């Protein structure tokens, strides 16, 4: 759904430049959404556990973030421990394996991720990071 300062929801198909990937159960995600609303931002919400990003979408977000897949992986999650991610190499040759793991186990993706209007993205775990996305 797309949200704006007026509090009305619109279908996700509405085109706007900012998108936030959230888990509604996450307090950091709820805080980020609250700040976006308080600032009157126009953005699209993606509940990434339900609307799972493809490997291509994950690679695009990583490029926008300027990060590697292991940088946005929640290594304390049960799935990460089951996969033994802490022991996986963190190098170019292993990058595709990490991206596949994120696509197959979206709960491993750090949240919230905010894509900004200028083509960049931030992991919005702090108010400062969310404001950074708003300023782009």
Question: Can you walk through the features of this model?
Answer:
The longest helix has 12 residues. A hairpin with a 5-residue loop joins strand 5 and strand 6. With 136 residues, the protein is of the alpha+beta class. The chain has a domain of 56 residues. It is 35% helix and 15% strand. The radius of gyration is 15 Å and the shape is globular. Helix 1 packs across helix 5. The chain has a six-stranded mixed β-sheet, with helices on both faces. This is Arsenate reductase. GO terms for molecular function: arsenate reductase (glutaredoxin) activity. It holds the Pfam family ArsC. It comes from Streptomyces ambofaciens (strain ATCC 23877 / 3486 / DSM 40053 / JCM 4204 / NBRC 12836 / NRRL B-2516). Belongs to the ArsC family.
| Overall residue-averaged pLDDT value | 89
- Structural class call reads alpha+beta
Summed up, the helix count is 5
Q: List the strand order in the largest sheet.
A: 2-1-4-3-5-6
Order of helices and strands: EEEHEHHHEEH
Which geometry do the CA atoms define? globular
Rg over C-alpha atoms, rounded to the nearest angstrom: 15 Å
Summarize the biggest pleated sheet. Answer: 6 strands, mixed
Give the percentage of residues in beta strands: 5-15%
Question: What share of residues is helical?
Answer: 25-40%
CA(first)-CA(last) distance: 22 Å
- Residue windows where pLDDT falls under 50 for at least 5 positions: 1-15
Task: Tell me which oligomeric state these chains represent.
Answer: single chain
Number of strands: 6
